[in-house]
Amino acid sequence: MSRVIIEFRDVYKSFNGLLVHKGINLSILKGESMSLLGGSGSGKSVLLKELIGLMKPDKGDITVFGKNVTHMKEDELIKLREHVGMLFQGAALFDSLTVFENIAYPLREHLQLTEKEIRERVAEKLRLVGLISIELKMPAELSGGMKKRVGLARAIATEPDIILYDEPTTGLDPRTAQRINELIVELQKKLGITTIVVTHDLHCVKTVSDRIAMLHEGKIVTVGTWKELTTSPMQVVKDFISGTICV
């Protein structure tokens, strides 16, 4: 039986009295690619922040590697984050740093590597995302798709066990978005990384997911494969797939 690596148990979260999570329950298996699907404001990105301790749920438990994140102190959370990479929605590169320095940053923060090892690691991760000899470029010189790929190279630089993607295809043209989707799949298979993708992009979901969890009105209303999602008898799922729910 596959091992559960991440688990949300009865998680509640509110902002200014508005409940965003109303008892989230979800298990994610080691090495699988799980997509969190739902409309804007459904709390998808909040789950990622709770997972790495950037936010605390009001109630409930979140376990990663069998340890309860909600009870961790800051030094424990820092150690946890060494095993988790994240690709932010806008890539979140440091504008004043070169591509090399952007990718080297987490290596210097978290690992004890020589400068030679850092150079080799940066070049290796850039090759994995299909970029070569761009280490000296600045973020302003890159296209949107290239920024995403540099952000992805940075996310995998420390060779994490888990990688989180927050709206990875937002703002990209269809061809570039498809390349990012393909990279997500390639990296999961090559590196054996457990992947969580937050999105409302149905093409992304179809391409990258082993399983999909759909959030609606603060709860996970269904978990399954793409085929199971598209054949679900639940009206809320049918409406989302057909585009009648605003995303």
In words, what does this structure look like?
This protein is of the alpha/beta class and 247 residues long. It has a domain at 90-158. Helix content is 38%, strand content 26%. The chain is built from 9 helices and 10 strands. The strands form 2 sheets. The chain has a 6-stranded mixed β-sheet, sandwiched between helices. A 4-stranded antiparallel β-sheet has the order 2-1-4-5, with no helix packed on it. The longest helix is centred in the C-terminal third of the chain and has 18 residues, at 174-191. It is globular and about 55 Å long.
The gross shape turns out to be globular
- SSE pattern: EEEHEEHEHHHEHEHEEHH
Strand arrangement in the largest pleated sheet: 6-7-8-3-9-10
Using the CA coordinates, give the radius of gyration.
18 Å
The end-to-end span amounts to: 35 Å
**Structural class of the secondary elements?**
alpha/beta
Mean pLDDT: 90
Strand content: 25-35%
Number of helices: 9
Secondary structure: helix percent: 25-40%
Largest beta-sheet details:
6 strands, mixed
- Uncertain stretches of 5 or more adjacent residues: none
| Oligomerization | single chain
Number of DSSP strands?
Answer: 10
